């Protein structure tokens, strides 16, 4: 568990950095996942008998890295889940697009449907279609790349990747939805900021984590925007 990057913890929550290509919870791959890692960390650090309770209140897609918060009690899990439901749990993503959006900022609304791990934009009337809303803002442009800040108003699988690709600005390194596949081991999508109310205290917690020091992130002055 020495590889787990914990940036904040108390009796109610654990805030960690999820590496890219690590699942948020166990899946059919059998690879070590964040939920299992946090459970093992808490069990070992606090000498917990049996399995430690850890509540998974939100997820990041496997290729996405960045900040995640886990609940250490069921009360914290319920209260954080309620914040997500009410739109009080604010996640801010950063991405680098291979191609520059025509509009410097926008509010994207589409209906998405997942089929065999591929998400497609479909008509609203199609069975299984789910509304997806994304707000984006271009922060900086370098050659044919753009550094983009993204907030999602819905939490659909592959949402940012599909909606940005749909406006001609697929994410750098996206082999699934991108047209021009850039050589990189990581998708250029990072959950860089997270803000929420502490589940038991009258205070708002805010966290920021920088994306990896690698291309294409190093093409931009990320610290200027992430603070």
β-strand percent reads 35-45%
Largest sheet: 12 strands, mixed
Helix percentage range:
10-25%
Global geometry: globular
Mean pLDDT: 94
Unreliable residue runs: none
Number of helices: 4
CA radius of gyration is: 18 Å
- Give the SSE order as H and E letters: EEHEEHEEEEEHEEEH
Number of strands: 12
Distance between the terminal alpha carbons, to the nearest Å? Answer: 29 Å
SS class: alpha+beta
Give me the secondary-structure topology:
Elements: E1 5-9, E2 13-18, H1 34-45, E3 55-56, E4 65-71, H2 74-86, E5 90-98, E6 105-115, E7 118-121, E8 130-142, E9 145-152, H3 159-166, E10 170-171, E11 189-197, E12 204-208, H4 222-226
Parallel strand pairs: 4-11
Antiparallel strand pairs: 1-2, 2-4, 3-4, 5-9, 5-10, 5-11, 6-7, 6-8, 8-9, 11-12
Question: Which features does this protein show?
Answer:
globular, twelve-stranded mixed β-sheet, alpha+beta, 227 residues, 36% strand, 17% helix
Description of the structure:
With 227 residues, the chain is an alpha+beta fold. The chain has four helices and twelve strands; from the N terminus they run E-E-H-E-E-H-E-E-E-E-E-H-E-E-E-H. The chain has helices spanning 34-45, 74-86, 159-166, 222-226, and strands at 5-9, 13-18, 55-56, 65-71, 90-98, 105-115, 118-121, 130-142, 145-152, 170-171, 189-197, 204-208. Strands 1, 2, 3, 4, 5, 6, 7, 8, 9, 10, 11 and 12 form a twelve-stranded mixed β-sheet that branches. Strand 11 (189-197) and strand 12 form a beta hairpin. The model has no long low-confidence stretch (mean pLDDT 94).
